[in-house]
Structures are given as C-alpha cells and as structure tokens.
From TrEMBL:
IleRS has two distinct active sites: one for aminoacylation and one for editing. The misactivated valine is translocated from the active site to the editing site, which sterically excludes the correctly activated isoleucine. The single editing site contains two valyl binding pockets, one specific for each substrate (Val-AMP or Val-tRNA(Ile)). Residues 24-643 form the Aminoacyl-tRNA synthetase class Ia domain. GO terms for biological process: isoleucyl-tRNA aminoacylation. This is Isoleucine--tRNA ligase. ATP binds at K608. The gene is ileS. A motif ('KMSKS' region) lies at residues 605-609. Its main location: cytoplasm. It is an enzyme of class 6 (ligase). Monomer. GO terms for molecular function: aminoacyl-tRNA deacylase activity; ATP binding; isoleucine-tRNA ligase activity; tRNA binding; zinc ion binding. One of its GO terms (cellular component) is cytoplasm. It comes from Candidatus Uhrbacteria bacterium RIFCSPLOWO2_01_FULL_47_25. Its EC number is 6.1.1.5. Keywords: Aminoacyl-tRNA synthetase, ATP-binding, Cytoplasm, Ligase, Metal-binding, Nucleotide-binding, Protein biosynthesis, Zinc.
Amino acid sequence: MPQEKESKQEIKSAPFSFSKIEEQVLAFWQKEKIFERSVNERSDEKEYVFYDGPPFATGLPHIGHLLASAIKDIVPRYQTMKGHRVERRFGWDCHGLPVETMVEKELGVNSKKEIEKLGIQKFNDACRAAVLRYVAEWRRTITRFGRWVDFDNDYKTMDPKYMESVIWVFGELYKKKLIYEDFRCSLYCTRCETPLSNFETAMDNNYQEVEDPSIYIVFEAMKKPNTFFLSWTTTPWTLSANVALAVKEDAKYVEVELTKGGKVWKGRHIILAKDRLSFVFADQPYQIVKEFNGADFIGWEYKPIQGFIKPDKEAHRVVAADFVSLEDGTGIVHIAPAFGEDDFNISKKENLPMVLTVDDGGKFLPAIAPWAGQYVKAADQSIIEVLKNEGKLWRAETITHSYPFCWRCASPLIYKVQTSWYIKVEALKKKMLATNEKIHWVPEHLKHGRFQKGIESAPDWGVSRSRYWGVPIPVWRCDRCKKERVVGSLDELEKLSGKRPHDLHRPLIDEVAWACACGGIFQRVPEVFDVWFESGSMPYAQVHYPFENKEKFEVTFPADFITEYIAQTRGWFYVMHVLSNALFGKHSFKHVVTTGTILAEDGSKMSKSKGNAPDVNLILDRYGADALRYYFLASSVMQAESVNFSESEIAEAVRKILLPLWNVFTFFKLYAPEGKKLRPMREPKHVLDKWILARLEETRHEVEGAMESYELWLTARPLAEFVNDLSTWYLRRSRDRFKSDNEEDKHEALTTLYSVLVTASKIFAPFTPFLAEHLYQNLKPWNAKPKDSVHLEPWPKSHKEFVDEKLLQEMSAAREIIEAGHALRSEAKLKVRQPLAAVWVHGSAAISKNIERLILDELNVKQWTSSKAPKGKNIVSWKSPAGKLEISFDTNLTDDLKLEGLRRELVRQINALRKKQGLTIRDKVIVHYNTDSAPLLKLLKNQEAAIAKDIIASGFEYGEGAHELKIDLEVIKISLEK
C-alpha cells in the first residue's frame, strides 16, 4: 500500500532500547490493525485451525503462560506467512474449583453447608464477579509479549451458548450409551466435598511426600482361639469400616507362636505370609506352628476389630484378592470397601457389605462415638492408642510415602464411596489408541509413551462434581418412579418444561421441573460438570456447535494445531481426545507441541508464595519480549523437558542475537545511498556475497523445515548462527568494500546486505516479531515495493540459485583455518595487526584462490602455501588434536612488515578516538600530531594519503596533540579537528 498517507504511523529509528521500541511497534500494529489484516487478507479456503486452551483468569499470567503463548504466536504467524488464514480466539475457563476455592476464602466460608446457608445464588454471583477479575492484566501482558490473539471475540465457558454445547455433548454421549451413574469408590476431597478424577491428581504431579502412620494390627480368628491374622495399614481411621481380610490365594502363609512379648503377646499365634515373616518379626523370637496356602483361609471368620456399626450383610471373613502384595505389609490386607478402590471392587465380587463411617467433610459420623465429629486423619493417633490398649496393635511406626492432594485447595485426598456420573472410557480405548496414531506428537516419544500409556491405564472418567459453579449435569429424574431424562438443548428443555432459562447456572436451572406421567416431578440431579469436561468440549462449545456454525466446524475439524505444557497430556489433550472419539470417532487435533515446565533458578517449583517466580512484566521491561521469546525457543523446555529459569540467558539473547542483527542494519544505514531504491541481489559476483546469500538460503530452508515438522527448537540454532555469520564474518570481511572507490563492488555489497536484511526480517518475523518489524520498517526507504508490515509479507521463497554447498564447505574450512591461525598467533604472542610473511597450511580441504585471499587478509599474512612448513627457528606451528590439519607461520619480521604493523595499529587507535568523540563516516577531520618517533615520522611521510583515507581525514598537520597514543615503544600525540 502507498506509504505517503499522512495517517500512517511511522516507526522511526531510535537509540536502541528494545522495550521502548517494542512499545512503539505495538502502537503501530494497533493503529494500522496489522493483526486483523493478517487474518482478513488471507482466503477462507486456506484455513489453518488453532485451538487455544483456556486458562483461568483467577490470577496473573506467569512465565509458564508466556512460554505457551510464544508457541501459540510463532506457529500461527508462520502459517499466516505461508498463506493460511489463522483465526485466533482467546478463551477463559470460568467454572469449577479454581474459582470456587478463591471465592470461599474471600467470603469466609469453609464448607458446602456454609455455602448453602449463604445461598447458592449469592455464592455463584460472587463467582461470576470474580472469575474475570484479571482479564485486563492478562490482555495487557499477552499483548505486550507480542502474541496476536482475538480478545474482543473471546469465548468463556460460563457463556450460555458455550454451556448449551457442553450439555449437548453429554446428551450425545448418553444416547451412545457411554454415560452411566454409579456408586463407587474414587478420589475425594474432604475440604471441597467433591469427587475428583485420577488424571486431575496425576496431571500436575499433585502428590507429596508425607509421613503417615504405619501400623500392624491383629484380627482374632473365630474358629481358632488365640490365633490372629496380622494385617498392615497406613490409614488407621478406616479400621472402623473393616468388613473383610484379603489373602493371596496361591501364596504360602504360616502360623507362628510368639515365644516372647509380655503378657499380651507371648504365646499368641499369628498368621501372615511366609515371604514377610523375616521382615515383620526380624527382632521377635517365634516358632512356626504350621504352613498353609492362602486358599486354606478363604471363608474363615474373625472378630471385628471395632464394632461401632453392624453390617447389613455377612461380613468379617477372609477372601482372596489378586492385588494382595508380598512386597510390603504382611500379605493380609484389611478391606474397607467405603474407602479403597480395590476394596470396593472386591466387595462387589464377594457381596460384602458397605460400612460408611465418615461424612462428606471427612469427619467421623456420630456412630463412631470415640471420634465423632473429628477429621479422620486427625484421629489416627488416638485410634492407635486405643488399639494398643486393647492388645490389637503389634507395632506402630511412621512411613514416608507419596500421597495425593487436591489440585486446587492442596488438601490431602481420601478414597471414598459416592455416586458420580461416568464416561465409559474403557469402551473407547481401542478407538482412542487407533486415532492417536493419526496425531503428530512433538516430542514424538509422547505419542507411544506418556499419552498412549495414559489411555491404556485410564479408568472410566467421573465427570460430575458435587459443587455449585459450573455447567449443570443435564439429567432430570422423577422423584417417584425414578425415570431419567437427559436434555441436550435449550429447545428440548423448553419443550419439556415450558421454561427457557436465560442462565443455565444453579440455582436457576434447579428450579426447572415438569410433571411425570406417573404423577411425580422431574427434578434435576444436583451435580455440575468437571471443568475438564467443559474445556474438553471447547472445539464444539466455542462455536456453539451444533446450534450454529455447523458446516464450518465440520469442515475444519480436527484442528491443525494445539500446544500446552506436558501435564496436559493427562489433562486437556486427554479430555479432548476422549470426547472427540466418543462423539465422532476421530482425533480432535492433528499436530500437538508439548513443552516442559520452567522451574525456579534453584530447580524448585515456582511459586508466588515462595517468591521465586520472576515478574514477567519486569522481564519484558528489562529485556523486551523478543529476547524472552528467543530464550524459550533455544531452551530444551521446547522438548518437553523441565528447565531452571535463567535471566542471564535472556540477556544473552539480546547480546548475541538481537543487538548484532540491529547493528548490522545500523552499519548498512551508514553507507546506504539516500533516496535510492535497491533491488534484491540476484547474481552476486563477489565470493562473500555468494557465500552470505547461500547461508541465507540455507537458514531459510532449515527454519522452514523445523517449522513444518513443528520442532520449533530446531529453529534457534540456525537463526543464531546466521546472525553470527552475518555480523562477525560477512560484515567484518566486507567492511572495506562499503567505503571502496570501486563503485561496482560497493553497490554489490550494499545490494547484497540490503537483500539479506529484508529477507532476514521475514525469516525472523514469527520468532522475534518486534525486531523483525522494526528492521523491515527502517529498510523501507530502500524498498521499492514494501508492504505495510513485515507480518503481511509471505514467507520467503526458495532461491535455489543461491545454493552452493561447495562454497559453504570451503568457507567452513577457511574459518577453521582462521580460528586455528588466530589461536597460534595468540600462543606465539604475535599481534593480529602485525603482518607476517607467510603461512603454510597442510591437511585442509581444497581452497579456491578467492577464499585463500580471505584467509590471508584475515590472518594478516602475505603469502599462502598449501604444504608443510620448512623447519627453521622462525617457524611456529599448530596441529589439530587429530593431527589432520597443520598450520605454520613465518615469524621473521622485516622492516617493511614492522612498518605496516605500525600503520595498522595507528589507524586502529585513531579510529577508536573518532568513535569515542562521536564522529561518523561523514565527518572528515584534520589530524594534528606531535611525535619524536622516527618510525612514525617516516610512516606518516611515506603513507600519509593512504592512512588519511583509512581514518577519513583530509590531511595531517604537525602541531600540538591532546591525546597520547602508545604503539609498542612508539608514542604520538593526536588531536582531531572537524
């Protein structure tokens, strides 16, 4: 578009503060609507679909959010440059425990009973008000980071349309007979008073090493007086719910008589697994009375260890169970079906009773009189003391083990029976494993590793929560005949009830009821959905499918790309996979990039309470977003590995990548012709121009390959190496060409550097979008056909004519020789500016004459010989460790060589003085000098014109000098006059 429009905001070159420049670029993008145009100017027919996992807005964005945001921005920017239309909607998780626990603290309520006393409506109103509290901060930080995403058209899981689609998903699964209600034992949070799913606990490693009681207790056999089964448990509080003991049917057991142990234990007969005998009774004298098979005990009855509640069916007998271990404990497991998953399952198989001793808050019921009202874990020590006094405790210890905690309130979890709604994951596993084969996982090992293993071991998914703030489970049940009706849309609900609530949240939705044919009333079950069911429904709910956008969704599903950190293999990635397979029998995403976790600098988990999490806004202010983005890109965190945060590495990105690239432009600007357009270089003649264009094409190809394979970390090295090659090799070796009297060569160098910088701005655009934009805008005076933004440009095309593998290999060999030559000079204490007569190079690959000249110039040597050096006292040599490459210098310095070295050092020091005084290449000076040095006077007499050219001077005048320069043993005083 034409650039002369006055309304166009310009990005001006400025003294460099990356943070300030980035803010200027942000203002430019916003005013010119560059993001919106980058989407709208691409065709609908080339849509690239990205799903954005919704975060909770209950806290401020942290470094982990920016890590994910880097990938969520890099990939869409790249795909946009490849010609795709990439719509990016931000989303918000609004429901569930993260919000409820925060609001509970603010309202000062500590239980569901207190919430219901306050009123569900008031509580949910408070949740609604709190849920988007930090939206403005999120928008500001994400935008400042340079991530392009549509906040104005965001989706929220609490929006009525979103909620209706979630209800539809459940209804469809119910129709497919994939939903069932069941009373079973599962993980339960006593503080939140709700069941949780296994993956919620596993996904973020919500296990902690804790100390718990480890006790050995005895149960007296009914048919053999003075004979006791010895069992082991780490949950003394569950003993009041004991209904059975389990043994391993094919294991060997022993009955032993204790020969010591005081009045209580001496003479008692104890039964336990033979394999555990030496461990359990390591310090206790005993005598084996008899050996048994586990099967021999099946059906034996024993006396209840605590008889507070009488079971409603036959209990307190020995059963067989495969899960009984001989690796720990005694080989006899105490069974409390109400508080253990394995216990519950064996109880169903053996028709054992269920004894529930604990309320929903994890406190003992009144029937458990000694501990009624006490929190179960708080009662453990008292229970142990009672068992000891009753002669039922053999030994009490403590054990350190891994224990699950609530993913939101950090309370210890228990297993507890409750009624929940489940998805039949078991019935979907075969399909889920098959469709996983169609997903491209990055890193690849997650596909058949963590993700596949997670599917294989997954239990059925409990999707209901006994809470308040969430999408309601859309099941209505008749209070008389118990008939169920699952509702899948608002239209269906209105048809059944005559009501169409504007808000689907509790308690309004609970008031919707209708008459049953039996005379009863259909009323909604009280549960709400697990928030993971809601976020897993995101592909459909964000577009209100199937009520709107039906055709568009079905054409664009599954998504092309998603990304989050590794824990989401058990979270969002997993739940989306479950639901898409259940609904459509297909995967919901084609490509997934998984990051690792960023830890604190000391390797501990980042935590706001610990104060070890960096303030992301301070990082952005200090270094800029591009530096942080490149730091992420170059880190192994991009390969799903955990890394320690390193601020110094962000600073290094500025020093090694961003500043050098910008400095190349500032050098170009010094010499570029004003008011003259430059065309891209197509047919370079100079070997350095050919080489840098070959390197540019090589870099473009490597970066493109890495992006096409979604291995983003593979872009960091080629980008860094190219900047290094451009700034420390091409520019340094070409510097004299830019001020050369050879206009043709000078123009070629300028045109080449211009072409490289324009193309580099495009290659860097997805990764460091601010610097790329700033560079592109500052190159516009020389660009004949610029677009309004680099982010409206296509990805650079391949230029096969620049590919030159032979030249790249030659230059690589040359730089190896140069590196070795500089090392040899340093070792021999030969200054780089002191010319040498000759270099001998043996064992190198073939080097062309053009490259030979570069090497000689760089090493400051007059003559090249491709052979071993002759022996002599003035010869110094270096051999590579493998002995393949050998380099030698002739160190004999003639008077002419010494004089030339003197000249080079004089030029260097005068140019350093020019720089110190702020002079530019356009500032010619007169050099006033004073010296008694005969070599320097001779040098100035013979080479005044050549030296004047090198230091941009109009001439030398003998007189007073203000600045003393020392060159070896020679001294000269210099003043520069403009």
